[in-house]
Structures are given as structure tokens and as C-alpha cells.
Amino acid sequence: MRGKQNQIIDGYDLFDSDSEAVNFLAHKTVAEKEAEKLIADVSLQVVSVDELNHKALEGERRKTGDPNLQQMPAWRVVNYIRHKMTNYNLLMNWIHDNVDTVKAYFLKKDLKIAVLEKTEKAYPHLAEECAIQRRNVWETPLQLPRSKTASKGDARNSTPVK
Predict the structure, then answer these.
(1) DSSP secondary structure, 62-115, as one string
(2) Model pTM score
(3) Is residue 14 situated within a structural domain?
(4) For 69-78, b where at least 16 C-beta lie within 10 A, e where not — what string?
(5) Is residue 10, in this structure, part of any structural domain at all?
(6) Domain contains 16
(7) With bands split at pLDDT 50, 70 and 90, how would you rate the model's confidence at 68?
(8) Number of domains forming the structure of the chain
(9) Which of 34, 130, 135, 162 is close enough to 116 for a disulfide, judged by CB 3.0 to 4.6 Å?
């Protein structure tokens, strides 16, 4: 019978018992320990609010092809910060390439939370949106990639396993 430890992995039957799940999650490899250090030291480029808004808006204009875009919702600004003003993508790829897939799932969520916490401290006007995104982190189900080389850590290129 599956218990709470096994259910934490969003309903996937990866372990026969809770003790198996606990043992798997408790054992840390060298790569996992390194990932935890990298997450703790995640870098964030801090600029003035005006410069941030300008950079985010220019990035969104390039992305959408809409030169008339005048403002962006807070969630897009927070996403811009995470992907363009931190080493988030680099660390996500490092975790993906160096850590077991299931454990990487948890480390990637820890990384996103760490980036959102740093963003909230650096840009208090985005605190509400950072809090919303932090709450949503654990709502994303575990998606195991088809292969490490095919997905490069992008869940959109992954297929859920049941």
C-alpha cells in the first residue's frame, strides 16, 4: 500500500513501500549535494525597477513581435527575471544532466522557489506574484523525460509516466 512518502511524487507508483521511497529520497549523491549548494547560491542580477520594466518589456516585444506593447502583467515580469536575469536555466540544465530524474524533480522545484524568494527580496513590488508562483510550484506533476538528451530539462518535451 502506498503511503504519504510515495504519494508526494504526484500519484506515480515508483516505489513498493513508504520505506523504499524514504530511503531513496534520503540518500544524497555528490551531484545532489552540489546542486543544493548551487541552489543556495543562485545569482540574480538586480537593476532599478525602471530598468527592469524596460528590459522585460523589450524582451516581450521581441518575443511577441508587438512593437506597441506598453505593459506586462506581473507574472510575465517575474518569469522574465527568472529566465533572463538569473542563472536559473543553467542550473536547471545542470541538475537535469547530473542528478537522477526523480530527485532532480525535487531539486528543480527547490531551485524555482529559491529564485522566487530572491526575486521577492530584490523587487518587493513583485512580492505578491512571487508568492503566487511559489504556491504553484508543487502543483506541477512529476514528468519523467523520454530521454535525457531529448528533453534537456524542458517539461514541455516530456511525457508523463503513470
Answers:
(1) HHHT-TT-----HHHHHHHHHHHSBSHHHHHHHHHHHS-HHHHHHHHHHHHHHH
(2) 0.71
(3) no
(4) eeebebebbb
(5) no
(6) no
(7) confident
(8) 1
(9) 130
